[in-house]
Amino acid sequence: MAATKRKRRGGLAVQAKKPKRNEKDAKQPAKLRDVAEETKEEERDRIPGPVCKGKWKNKERILIFSSRGINFRTRHLMQDLRMLMPHSKADTKMDRKDKLFVINEVCEMKNCNKCIYFEAKKKQDLYMWLSNSPHGPSAKFLVQNIHTLAELKMTGNCLKGSRPLLSFDPAFDELPHYALLKELLIQIFSTPRYHPKSQPFVDHVFTFTILDNRIWFRNFQIIEEDAALVEIGPRFVLNLIKIFQGSFGGPTLYENPHYQSPNMHRRVIRSITAAKYKEKQQVKDAQKMKKKEPKTVLPHDPTADVFVIPAEEKPIEIQWVKPEPKVDLKARKKRIYKRQRKMKQKMNSGNTK
């Protein structure tokens, strides 16, 4: 309906005039249309991101710390793990006199539900605890053959905070205790998706291999061109000791029968070297005793000369003529030299007179 306008004095309704449109107002919708078309073309050409924006649901947090008395190699390994795991947290060193159950309270204060604890003993042996705090299970390992990132200087590299792939040996699915460890390692080492400190890229792999009843850890870079692997580091070997039902204690679920403590290993090495030294000393003592023993004279065996062939007898020659004396050339030369020297002395004395 067209807008109408009444006259004040009751006249007929007159149609209202339409407002005039400026040229500027006419150009504005055309500009808006052009901008909308350009944005559509840009969206069409834009390459989508590798991971869409989502919600951070997996709230796994790992507490990584150690006891007092660790060496520089362990400290560098701990720093490498914190750098590779953006969902980790740090804490001060724990006193060796404190009991391990205190770690559960520390995890609760730090709002962490997993823990990697490095325990040093005798300033040469390193043990690693992997625990699900506070209800368990937990596993204790002896850490061997540690090589840190700074020490290896490998050619591989990865983005800091990127999410890793986890590669496990097929042997993890064969035995029940390895299956439990696999689940524990997945929950600890896998970076949660959409974590605030993580990067939305997957450019390296954590490999866990079982060899010689030990778990070998390696970190590789994934090269985009041909999907080849280049090692980054760090690397270490975990020798399983026990698996406990609770966190840092409780009933023992599994005990490794192949495990040999470092003290026992050092004792065996010392006993081997001592055995070698004792064997050498015994050989020397036996040689001395043989020298001191009197030599036994064996009786003459009459059958020893049975196969002896007698030598041919040479004819005896009798010399009837006296042999000529041998001339000593050296003595003759000395006499001639003395004679010549005397003659020279006489000649010199005559000339002086």
TrEMBL record:
Any single biological process term in GO: rRNA processing
Pfam family of the protein (one): Brix
Signal peptide: none
Places the protein is found: Nucleus, Nucleolus
UniProt feature, compositional bias: Basic and acidic residues: 22-47
Annotated ranges, domain Brix: 60-249
InterPro entries: Brix, BRX1
Region (Disordered): 1-47
Keywords from the named record: Nucleus, Ribosome biogenesis
Record's keyword annotation contains Nucleus: yes
Major localisation: nucleus
UniProt-listed SMART domains: Brix
SUPFAM superfamilies the UniProt entry points to: Class II aaRS ABD-related
Summary of the function given for this chain in its UniProt record: Required for biogenesis of the 60S ribosomal subunit.
Family in the record: Belongs to the BRX1 family.
Protein name (database record): Ribosome biogenesis protein BRX1 homolog
Organism, as annotated: Panthera leo (Lion)
Lineage summary: Eukaryota, Metazoa, Chordata, Craniata, Vertebrata
